Amino acid sequence: MGKKFMGAALVAVITLIAGAPDDLSVPPANAAPLAQVRNDVGQTDTLLGVDANSNGVRDDIDAYIEKSVHHAMRLAATQSARGFQRVMATDIKDRNALRETANQFTRDNACVWETARELRKQGTGSAAAPITRALEALTANTAKRQSHYAAFNSGASGMVFTNARTGNCDK
Description:
Helices cover 56% and strands 0% of the residues. It is mostly helical and 171 residues long.
């Protein structure tokens, strides 16, 4: 229970920083149920999983983004997925590495919220919350990954991170 709470707490903080209130009013029509996604559970018991194309995102998560995320949100979702993957690769005992990763992770996830806001301004509704929740669930999909994610969140507890409302996407 505590591990899930810590992960949800970090996503909630990111949500607040990135400006979620207006994003939550858009229905999550562009996200497919996670049960339909084949993930790498059983294929590997490592933190990082398989990334055959070396783009910084696990292959099963790449497939989820391609299949389930609206094309206009895919670059932002991929940046966010890279942020979650960086968390898995971070040495949680190295306080400086943890801070650096958490700062970048905040920016990576804010990109999804920023993109959703921009799409709504253009008249294309898109929700950020279902995308970031799905990426979090897919990333921490084994006991080993959940444990590392919880330890990362615990290590980042008490740190302060900021990001701008715009300019978070790598593009």
